[in-house]
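Notes from the pairing session

We agreed to fold both candidates in a single pass and log them together. This is the raw record for the first candidate, unedited. Please don't reformat it; downstream parsing expects exactly this layout.

Candidate A
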Amino acid sequence: MLTAPNEDHRPLYAAKDIVPFYLEHTPKIFPQQRYFFFCLCI
């Protein structure tokens, strides 16, 4: 996220935007089904 450039070749996102982004999108990025399957394999 910090290396994605905008039109002015500046970072598209600030460091302060990373945590809210992951808090909002974590369920889509890492579905819970994977964690459940992973836990069963251990």
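Candidate B (folded immediately after A)
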Amino acid sequence: MPENTLRRRQAAMRACDRILSGARPVTMRERLDELSAVADLDDLPDYYGDGPVTTLEQRVANLLGTEAAVWFPTGTMAQQVALRYGAQETGAVALHPLSHQLVHERDAYATLSGLRAVTPTTAYRNPVAAEIAALEERVGTVVFELPMRDAGFVLPTWDELTEACEEAVNIGARVHFDGARIWESAPYLGRSLAEIAEQADSTYVSFYKTLGGLSGAALAGTADLARYARAWRHRHGGNLFQQWPAVMSAVAGLDRELPRVPDYVRHARRVAAALAELPGARVFPEPPHTHQFRLFLPHPAGVLNAAVLTLAEQRKVWFAGGWRDTEVPGVAMAELTIAAAALEWTAADVADAGERLLELCR
């Protein structure tokens, strides 16, 4: 997105009285004010991973029911370490073509660690047990993305996930969960975070996705994995001198946002149902599996993005941005995130905003 377009979009969102998808952008000073309100800034900062970092790691391990958890500055780094840990013998990992590792990490798994990807399925979902059993070569790790973002934020059922994880163990592989959005996966799966993480040998979580942290991630699993992860975090350049602002924002997210996630997921289903009634609209998945889902409308992306900005600037209502053209001519798609700002929206509010947006597209 061009710099001037991004700044205009941010300014429009900040000025809106109501936001359906996403959160109002905040300034750096506002973020610092938030931190001072939730953290004891008179405590000493961390030094190369102690203090508040250690406290956060233990909290994550407790949440996920694992022996340990290790803080990472980025999820990409955390996942490289997780895949390397299970690939010493085979050098191969089972990855979906739409996985974060293949789509968004510039092939770091192969370039940095020399790993080879084996594809269990091309379907727009995580692999199922039969597909894992049918793999034609040995893999060290089978990766499940919960939810699979680039397939439309889709999740397996609990039985499908359990059976697939059991089959991964049967073929002698580790199970790794790309759980960047695991926080909002629990309601659909119908299990606690600890029960979900129990199915895997390692689980990565993000603190800025869903929880609203500044940045950062954690890799959770056994004590042996944690020792390995700390060594490789250092080798990857991830043992930063101080990281307390990101750590404190992660703690704030666990305190403030995590308890509200089930409300976001429930409300996303109401919002999606209202949006599906708009002329020519399609929601996927229907109903949403998490608090994020895709909306398709019968207009080009450029027209929709312009209409969203106009609606925001004229009526102080933010609908949803980031529209992209699809393979179907004249149809565009946006990813919606239903969070705190959207909880006050009724189905009638959603329908009214959608109708006004479509009028601007004519």
